[in-house]
């Protein structure tokens, strides 16, 4: 009855099943599978027994160390709101650790370093030492030296030694921008690695450059070197980390202060032939400066937003202020009034302060210039009447006026990327022009009056992008530009200009 109810498809399916069963039974496949499975188990047991007998001891387990990541909050450090602009510099500072790890709660100990031990250049540095000692003995003596600047005479003030304009029209400059030239003999790769700071010795009868790089090296380049077979380049390695500041005081030229991100400040004393230890701390030192009328006090950024004053006469820091919410990138003093100080910060502000009236608990700035992103520099003009700020928001700010009440933003592309030092616009020899590098291997010259770039220095001899600059305070038209490849370019005026 049930068979009769099956459909044709079901009957065909049952027939196929029956036929397949008969074929499997005829080939005895089930029995062979059972035998093969049993044989495989026996071989596996014998192999396991053999392996156990030949290697009765277990191999030691290699443990991978666990790297603990700690945030700024867990390390007791305030967050940096706009620190992404400085991620490269921050990473460089963290890579260069101290040579000897400090114990928790203990201060790191750094000692004096003999110049001979720190010297890594070729040949002898005797000529450099003798030159610096000779310059140092004459520093601060010739205070009435004037520099002819077209029809305008620029002189050193007899009291403070600052450059001031004595006569002529305040509104313009007689410098011919087209007369600035770059000669091959004024180009040199003075050191390996990225140059972080470059300075001229403020001496009217010397053309010497001091520069520092991210490897902790300090180099001197004497463009007037007369030694036979000498290139005038002297390289030292006095610091364990990137150089964050170089300060050469105009009245003490044989003593040069340098700082690094590892929290160390050293004094290179050519007379004693030593890189002496001046100050060390656990925090990072991001910038360094001195008042033009005070060679005994050092102003430096210690940690995030803090500014400290170190007095060499007492050997301590009697004053510490918290001025910004993030690192202070530059510290500069007004040439007309050394009590007026400007700071630039990664928090997006540049502030002007009066040192005579800063409240230690709640410091209040005389003027605050705001940018949309980190500010990498803020420098006063040679006469102290204007302030130039350079920001990662692609603007160069010019703040001027009797009380610095007027601020104008001049567009300039400032995106240097991860492998090039940030641009920092500097003033020339008067208040007519500001100089800043560009990404096309040139130097843009900005006119604050016209609020635009009016000229660009180009040269076929330039193979890299100049980032950090300094203008010789006594040699008008002499401009030094340093690159991230260790080169230094020095522009000068054409003969007869």
TrEMBL record:
One of its GO terms (molecular function) is DNA binding. PROSITE patterns: WD_REPEATS_1, WD_REPEATS_2, WD_REPEATS_REGION. The keyword Cell cycle does not apply. Keywords: DNA damage, DNA-binding, Repeat, WD repeat. Residues 36-60 are annotated as: Disordered. GO terms for biological process: DNA damage response; regulation of DNA damage checkpoint. It holds the Pfam family WD40. WD repeats lie at residues 321-357. Residues 36-57 have a biased composition (Polar residues). The keyword Endoplasmic reticulum does not apply. GO terms for cellular component: nucleus. Belongs to the WD repeat DDB2/WDR76 family. This is Uncharacterized protein LOC107427308. It comes from Ziziphus jujuba. The gene is LOC107427308.
């Amino acid at each position: 009855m049930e068979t009769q109810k099956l459909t044709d498809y079901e009957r065909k399916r049952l027939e196929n099943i029956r036929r397949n069963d008969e074929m499997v039974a005829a080939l005895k496949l089930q029995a062979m599978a059972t035998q093969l499975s049993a044989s495989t188990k026996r071989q596996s047991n014998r192999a396991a027994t053999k392996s156990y007998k030949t290697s009765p001891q277990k191999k030691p387990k290699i443990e991978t160390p666990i790297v603990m990541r700690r945030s700024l909050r867990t390390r007791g450090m305030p967050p940096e709101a706009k620190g992404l602009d400085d991620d490269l510099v921050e990473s460089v500072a963290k890579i260069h650790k101290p040579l000897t790890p400090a114990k928790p709660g203990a201060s790191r100990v750094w000692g004096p370093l003999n110049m001979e031990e720190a010297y890594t250049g070729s040949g002898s540095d005797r000529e450099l030492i003798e030159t610096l000692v000779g310059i140092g003995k004459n520093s601060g003596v010739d205070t009435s030296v004037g520099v002819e600047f077209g029809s305008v005479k620029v002189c050193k003030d007899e009291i403070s030694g600052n450059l001031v304009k004595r006569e002529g029209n305040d509104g313009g400059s007689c410098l011919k921008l087209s007369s600035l030239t770059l000669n091959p003999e004024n180009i040199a790769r003075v050191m390996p690695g990225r140059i972080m700071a470059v300075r001229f010795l403020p001496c009217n009868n010397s053309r010497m450059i001091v520069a520092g790089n991210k490897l902790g090296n300090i180099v001197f380049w004497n463009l007037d070197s007369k030694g036979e077979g000498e290139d005038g380049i002297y390289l030292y390695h006095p610091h364990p980390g990137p150089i964050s500041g170089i300060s050469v005081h105009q009245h003490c030229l044989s003593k040069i202060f340098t700082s690094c991100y590892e929290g160390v400040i050293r004094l290179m004393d050519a007379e004693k032939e030593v890189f002496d230890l001046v100050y060390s701390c656990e925090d990072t030192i991001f910038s360094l400066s001195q008042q033009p009328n005070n060679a005994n006090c050092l102003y430096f950024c210690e940690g995030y937003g803090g500014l400290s004053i170190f007095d060499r006469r007492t050997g301590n820091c009697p004053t510490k202020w918290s001025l910004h919410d993030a690192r202070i990138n530059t510290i500069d003093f007004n040439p007309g009034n050394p009590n007026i100080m400007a700071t630039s910060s990664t928090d997006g502000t540049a502030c002007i302060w009066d040192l005579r009236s800063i409240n230690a608990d709640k410091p209040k700035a005389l003027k605050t210039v705001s940018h949309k992103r980190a500010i990498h520099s803020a420098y006063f003009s040679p006469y102290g009447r204007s302030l130039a700020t350079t920001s990662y928001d692609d603007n160069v700010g010019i703040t001027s006026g009797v009380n610095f009440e007027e601020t104008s933003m001049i567009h300039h592309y400032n995106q240097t990327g991860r492998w090039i030092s940030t641009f920092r616009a500097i003033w020339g020899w008067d208040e007519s022009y500001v100089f800043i590098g560009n990404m096309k291997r040139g130097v843009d010259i900005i006119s604050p009056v016209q609020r635009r770039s009016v000229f660009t220095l180009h040269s076929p001899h330039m193979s890299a992008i100049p980032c950090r600059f300094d203008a010789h305070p006594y040699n008008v038209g002499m401009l030094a530009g340093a690159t991230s490849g260790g080169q230094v370019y020095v522009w000068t005026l054409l003969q007869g200009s």
